[in-house]
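sorry for the late reply, my laptop died twice this morning and i had to redo everyting from scratch. anyway the thing you sent over, i finally got around to it. pasting the sequence first so we're on the same page, its 324 residues, then the predicted structure underneath. double check i copied it right bc i was rushing
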Amino acid sequence: MRHYWKPTIAGLAATLLQFAAPLAAQTARPDTSRYVTTQGTDTLAIEQYVRTGNTITGAWIQHQAGLYVHDYALVLGADGWPAQYVMTLYTTRPHTFLLSVTYGPDSATRIMVRDSIAVTERVVAQKAYPVGALSILGVALALERARRAGVDSTTLALDAAEVRGPTAPLPVKFFGDDSARISGSGVARLDRDGRLLELRQGPRDTQRVATLPVAKLVAGFGSADSAARAARVAIVLPPAALQRFVGEYALTPTVALKVTLDGDRLMLQAGQQPATQIIAASATTFFFETVLGTTLEFETDATGRVTALDVVQSGRRQRLAKTK
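ok and here's the structure:
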């Protein structure tokens, strides 16, 4: 896998490690944590990080409609709260994502680079741990700190650094000697030192493991992607047949998926993201050319009028009603 933006990442990493060196010297023994996230029979992500004093370096590999490798480094201040976080994303496609977050007493300053677009923002984030996509690092550290504080209930201050704007805290209630309920829907299991052993969130399950055969798992991801790509067979639909899918489909109360027709190509756009082509597999089923594991199925009524769009991913189906 090719790594993009290597010179930029190297410079940021050097700065971060220079800042972290005095803190890392406080302990001589690194501690390694490994996690696997599954949903049903599918492995969605694997993660491994090493903590040496107040410096944590690691990576998580996410397999959802493609392969995404995230490298990160987190430096904790002398008080144990996050001070600096750097993360970069590598994919099999020419795409760059770079994130750097500096945490202050009551806010976080983020610098995000997506391809050629750089954004800097400051958000409210008081004593918050960074979280991103399927990474377990921030939740694990926040739960460990809360458990060691001996409280019965608290809130987890988390900073979803990849998402614009502040992140709402999650209420946590500890029960028994080794369990916690998070925001009413997640259940965590901890060891006596507060380290996360398992986190269940709906159909998704993350477990701490003793070993992590990274090469074997990544090879499995690649084989699954190859099989999924081979199983897709495109058909050609004329523009007149594609026209009926044009419209807007409600993703959230404020965000819609927009389907447009560009010549003989059907395009889909989510919010302010760039539009991407979707390709017909049948008269009402489509797929993305560069994204695996996601199917778009249009619903029609008895007259053939399109009424909704079903987004199917990893066995889960989300129905989006057509609004325009």
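The first helix runs from residue 6 to 24.
thats about all i looked at so far, will dig more tmrw
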